[in-house]
Each structure stands twice: as C-alpha cells, then as structure tokens.
Write a structure and sequence with these properties.
Number of domains: 3
Mean pLDDT: 93
Protein name: Choline dehydrogenase
Structural class: alpha/beta
CATH class of the largest domain: Alpha Beta
Low-confidence stretches: 27-47
Number of strands: 25
Largest sheet: 8 strands, antiparallel
Family: Belongs to the GMC oxidoreductase family.
EC number: 1.1.99.1
Strand content: 15-25%
Number of helices: 14
Pfam family, one: GMC_oxred_C
GO molecular function, one term: choline dehydrogenase activity
Amino acid sequence: MKNSNKDQLYRDFNAGKLSRRGFISRAAALGVAAQAPFFLSAAHAETTTAEEYDYIVIGAGSAGCAVAARLSEDPANKVLVLEAGPSDTNQYIHIPATFPFLFKTELDWDYVSEPQDKLDGGTLYMPRGKVIGGCSSINAMIYQRGHASTYDAWGQSNAGWSYADLLPLFMKSESNSRGASETHGADGPLSVTDLNDPNPISLAMVQGAGEAGFALNDDFNDGDQTGFGLYQVTQKGGYRASAAVSYLHPAIDAGRVTAQAEAMVTRIETAQGRATGVTFMADGKEHTVRARKEIILSGGSFNSPHLLMMSGIGPKAHLEEHGITVVHDLPGVGQNLQEHYMMPVVYTCTQKVSLSQAGTEEQGALFAEGKGLLTSNIGEAGGFLTVNEGAAAPDLQFHFAPGYFIQDGAGNPTDGSDGMTIMPSLVQSKGTGSVTLVSADPMVKPKVNPNVFQNEEDYKILIEGVKVARAIFASSAMDDLRGEEFLPGADVQSDEDLKAYINKYIQTIYHPVGTCKMGDDDMAVVDNELRVHGIDGLRVADASIMPTIINANTNAPTIVIGEKCAELIRSA
C-alpha cells in the first residue's frame, strides 16, 4: 500500500469518516497485512529543515503534546516538537490490552532502579514511553485526577495551582462520554469514556467490594474518591486515546506543528542566562535549532532533570564531579523523586473469561466491533480507602485486573490458565528519592533511586490492602469465579510474612514525579509559572514539576500541566 493512501486511510478513520468495519475493508483492499482488525496509527514525523522556531518542545509525551498543540492554536506561533523515540505506528499502542507487550522494547526507555536497601538489593523496573505520545502511548489509560487537597497544598506556595484553579483546565481538556457537568467537560480533545466492554470479573469484583462492606463509587473525579467502581479510561471507540492521538496528531494534520521523531536532544543551549536553542541527534548527525521565544522541556521525571544537568543546570558539585561546565547552580534538579507502589493479590479463575483468552480469532472479530477482551485497559476497576487516620486524602488505591498481572506482567503464568488480580497500591508515601548522573555522555541514562519504603509505615498500608483484597475475593459475588489463592498464598498470613512477600513482589505504578519541583524554596527548580529558576526562556512542563505526588494515576494531571503551561505562556 502506498504511504499516501495509508495515511489518508488513517486520517479518515480518526476523523470519523470511516467505521471500524469500513477501515478494515479498505485496509484489506489496499493490501494491509492479515492482522486487519488492528488499527495502525499514521506516522507523523518529518525532517526538521528550519533553523529557528518560536517555541521548541522537548518530548512528545502527555504534557508535551498538550502544550505544543495549544501553543499552535495561535497561527503566528511556529512550533517544533522533538521526540527521542519513533512515531506511534506500533499496533500494540492502539490496542488497549496489549500495552505490556511494549515494555522493554524500543518504545520504552526501560529504566531500572538502583538496588534498594529495603528490598535486599533488589531493583524496580520503571518503564517510560520513548515514542510519540510518551507514556500516554504505553500506559493503562486510567483517567484519574487525584484528590483536591493535593492541589490545594501546591497552591499554598504556588499561586494558580489550587484545585479550583486547575478544575477548569481538567474540564477543558476532556471530552467525557457521560456529557458535561459541574466537574466534567464534553468538548475537549481528550476522549474519556466508560469501558466499552467491561470484563465480568471486573463487574464481580466491584459487586464483591460492596458485599464486603465498602462504599461503591461511579465517579472518582467529581470530588469524592472513596469507594470502589469501574474506572473511566482515555479511549475512543475501544482504541487508546493517547495525548498524541488527542492533541498532537490533529495539530500536525492541520499544519500547525512540526514534529520530528527519533530526535535525541543532547543539550539545551544557553547564552547570558537565557535558553536560546536545542542540540539534538537525528539520522546520525548533530543538529541545532534556535528558539525565538521559549523552550519547553517535557521529558518526564527522569529525562527532564537529566537533560538539565547535561546542559549545565543543576547541583554545582555534582556537575563538576562529571566535568560538566556549570551554567547555573540549581541544587534541586533530580531531587524529590516520588512514586506509587503496588503488589499483587492473585487468585486463579475457574472460568475462561480472563485476559488469557484475548488472543483468539473470536476476540479479534469482537475488537473490530469495539468489544471484547482486546478493548480492556487491564486495570479496569479499582477503588480508594483511607488507612491512616487524619490523612487528608485516601492513601490506599486498588487496581483490579481481570487477568494475571505479576511483576509488571513478566511474572505471569505462561500455561494459558486464567487468573484475576487485585493490586493494593500505596499512593501517599512521604519518602523521596533522586535522579543523578552516571556520565557526562548524554546517551548514558542517569541513575534512579526511588528509595522505596523509606517510611516503615508504608508497609502498614499495603498489608491492610492485602486484607481488603482477600475480603473482596471471599465475597459471594466471586463464588463462581474464585479458584485457589495463587499469591501471596494461603500460608502467608502474619504481618511479617506479608511484609516479606511485599518486598519480593513490589513494583512501581509507573508514576514518577517531583524531580524538577515547583516552588520558591532553595530546592525548587521552577517557579509557579514553570520557569526554570535563573534561566530565562526555559520552562519545564511535565510530572517532574509536582511538588508532592497526587494520590492517583498521574496521566490526566500531567496533561493538565501541559494545558497550564500553554495558558501561562499565552498570558505572559
């Protein structure tokens, strides 16, 4: 199939001019390979030939896509987006249930933590999207904003960042399938929907939570998080609605944005205290482009501090240790790393309805209708509870998967058996870690030390989570599905035994934040307008600017950080 025909096919589908069946029929006629039910996104990347732009956005992730698209709405702005990874053409991006297949591939930065003292030297895998769309192209698509109290705490020292300030941007960003309300928008670029075809296991888990005495909740984003229910997801018609699909691709199609994939930025150029341009590697060559107005760094909580330090912006002694010329001493760069953690409570399932059955021809046919197991985001349901009395917000979240999800999926049984997983999730840890340099070579990834279980009280929350998960599995709603307890296992009962189990099976929830934190204290990296302290013409817009981590999934807030950055730039 000629590229021009293929690209037009994808654009017609994205614009709603083709039904799913129409797409499949035309794709077959044009010679697409036999996996026709699977939608392949059009590639949007071009060689950058211009030497100067008004705005350069580094990183096409959740925030980068949003800020670039919004800045490009002014036709006077010439906007360039540089992304280290490839375009988002891999079919596993767009089929919701297949995102774990992207882990440890070329679309993943594939970070692994430093050995953790509390884990007896064990490490934690930390995937990060290295692709157009960033982590929104490889995540579980759960739409959560987090508790209002977190944003209100930010707003105490960062004017404009309270929940009341950000709620209009959350609403502006989303197109919620339930329609507009006092807390939801219906006209934004980001499609937020109920699951097209929730798994019967997930429905039973929610019913079981109610039977176990816990409140039910049909909207975790209307101000009340407590309770259990199905999660809303960033999908459209059963496909993933990444930040790239929602924001960046429409802007590129309209000719408003230039985006270059496989462009690895190695340095932010500065002169006399101002960011002036960007140097990057593409096609084996070094290129430099200039920014007339501003540079927006949206590399994420690992790559943003890394690039700042590579550019001479960071802790002076640390930079000098690696022979990097200090442009500006900013001690907070790479500090204040925060994460969420979860571990599995797993039962076998007695019915053939779990995600283990997703690879059949029948499921491929159902996907063509926007139904079936392939539309699952894996983390279909969940809930929030408060364990520590006096906590301002729920400190225990749950992710429910109608299948196995053990050790990031790498520990799942491979025998084709059926399982189901509840993952108690620690979302209010007060511990912090760091991102530090290994080398002055920008191609060498930094060291990441999340410092898990710095606070011993964190175990208490997860142990309580195991007890809640077992109570839900024991409910009558689960009787027709429940097999044997696979993990932790019936013999793991005492708090000490559960602690040992947690240490073995703990994983991150892929929510790193905080390493370029916003504020006005000595360790702050950006101010409340996301401007890097001490450097003009440079802002950071991604999850790294969060002073403290929110208590829920971080993708929606990261998109809103991009929205906020564009708003701040336009109003400057």
